[in-house]
C-alpha cells in the first residue's frame, strides 16, 4: 500500500482563491450554443429559447466568469452581426470550425443567459481579421451608459443599461498558425498594445488579457511571452495560458500526472513575466488567466477534421463531443489541484468548454441533459475552495511515469476560510490504495469530516445517453480526524475532496 503525508498550517498561504478561478468558456462551436444552451423547440426551453435544464446544471456547476464568443471563432467574428433584430441578422460562413453561423444568439442573448446562470461575462475581441477600431466600438456599445450613437443603438436593441463587462481578451491564440490573422510575437504585441490603450481611453477600469502561448509545446513558447509582454506590460493585467491533456497510447500513468506539466507551464510563464517586470523596473505583477484548460482528445479531432469538404457548411454540427471517463475526471481533478496551488498568480481560469463541446454537460436534441464525469470535481471544488489556498508540505511515495519520470503518488492542494478547511487529493496509483495522513494540529481542528470524490472499479466508465447516471460522486467513509491528524484511504485512480468543518 502506498503512503503519503501532508502538513498544513494556516500561517503558510499561497494566496486568496479568486472566484474567477472557476470560470468557463462558451464558443460558437459545434453544438455548444445551438442545440446546447439554446434549443427553442426543447420542452424545457423558455420564450428566449434557452434550455432551463441546462441552466440548472450550469448553476450547479458553479462557474463564475464565462469567456465568450471564442476561441478560434472570435478571429473571424463581426460582433455587429449578433445584435439587432434576430430575423435581420446575417448568416455567415464560419471558417474556424467550417460551419454556418446563424447569429441567432449574440451579445444581448448571451448576457441574458449569463444572468440566468449567475455568471459574469468575459469578452474576447477580434484581433485576427479586425483590429483596434472594432474593439473600441464594442467597448463603447457594451460599457458606455448613454449619449452616443452606439449606446442609442444598444438601447434600440433592447438594453438601456450598459453590460458593464470588466474583463476582455485581446484576441485568441495569436501564436497559432491555424488562427485567422495569425501574427508573430512582435506584430501581435504592437497590435495588442495599441488596442489596449485605445480600449482604456473609453473605459479606464477594464481588465485586459493578452494572448500567451496556446500550448507549452509551441515552438515559440517562452520567447512569445517575453516579446509580447515587452510591448504590452504597462497596458495589460493578465497573460493567457491554454493547455489540453489526453491519454496517449494507453499510458494512463503519465496522463494522471498531467498536473506536472501544468505546473511547469504556469511556473515558466510566471518566470518570463517577472523577467520582463525586472527589465521594466515595474512594481506591477502580471497575473495569469488560464482561460482554456481541459481534457481534450485532440488526436480524435484531427482525424475527424480531414473528413470535412469545402462544399459542406453545416449549422451546429456534432464536433468535439468527447465522452469522459472516470480516469479523465481524476486527471481533470489533478489539474484543478495545480490551479489552486498557483492561486497567487493564476487568478482567472476558464474551463473550455461547458456544454457538448468537450464539456462537463451534455445534451441531446429534444432529450435529456446530463453530467459528464468531469462535472463532479469542478462542482465540488468550486463550492468548497474558499478563502486562501495553503502551501502543502507533501512527503509521499512515488509512481513511475513514462513522460514525467518519478512523481508523487498523491497530488494535493488545500484551502481554508477559517471556518472550514478542504484538502483536494488525487491518487495517481493505478492499482493501490494510498493511505494519506494530514497533520492539521495548527488548526485546532475538531469538527466534522466529509469526504467526497470520484473513482470506480472500471476507470473507463462513462455517463452517456445510454446511461446518464452510471458515474456519480461517491462518499469516502474512511476519512477520520483524531488528535489533529486526518487519515483517509484513497482508492487507486481517484480524486477526493475532504472537508473539515
Structural description of this entry:
- The chain has 501 residues and is an alpha/beta fold.
- The chain contains 11 helices and 26 strands.
- The chain has helices spanning 52-61, 107-117, 132-143, 149-156, 185-202, 223-232, 252-256, 258-279, 298-305, 326-341, 375-384; strands at 2-7, 13-16, 23-25, 65-68, 92-94, 99-101, 120-125, 167-170, 207-210, 238-245, 287-295, 346-352, 361-363, 369-371, 388-390, 393-396, 398-401, 405-408, 410-416, 421-427, 434-439, 449-454, 474-475, 480-482, 485-490, 494-500.
- Strands 3-4-7-8-9-10-11-12 form an 8-stranded parallel β-barrel, surrounded by 6 helices.
- A hairpin with a 4-residue loop joins strand 5 (92-94) and strand 6.
- Helix 10 runs parallel beside helix 11 (375-384).
In short:
By secondary structure, the protein is an alpha/beta fold. 26% of the residues lie in helices and 25% in strands.
